[in-house]
Specification:
four-stranded antiparallel β-sheet; alpha+beta; 2 domains; 5 helices
Length: 143
Amino acid sequence: MAQKLSFRVVAAVAVFGLLTACTSPQSRINDNLEAFSKLPPEQQELIKQGKVGIGFDETAVKLALGNPDRISERTDANGKSMIWRYVEYEDDGGVALYRGFYHYAYSPFVFPLYTDYNTRRERDHLRVVFEGGKVSTVEQELK
């Protein structure tokens, strides 16, 4: 029984490692060595760190960060720009539905009733703006 359990643990860790490795800058570089080798050395160094800089093209951004979670287009007085958004999710642990004497028949104490599910919010933690096919702005939440 212990041998089966340890095998399952090892298998689960291996699968988790494979899944997380697929999303690293190094794995994206390994999958696209030709595109990576064509980039200037300063861009290559930033990509290895999972960072982007002004002047990167879409391929370089994808090597550094992966595919964006959302893409939008903005039109203003300067023309059109494309915005790639990378999001994170936040849970607040539930929402108070009611504060009051709903358990008064069973208890003299007042305490809140919470939902049994977490509320999940999406927020942009990184935005990359492209103008003319090149990165013109990088906005990163510092938190």
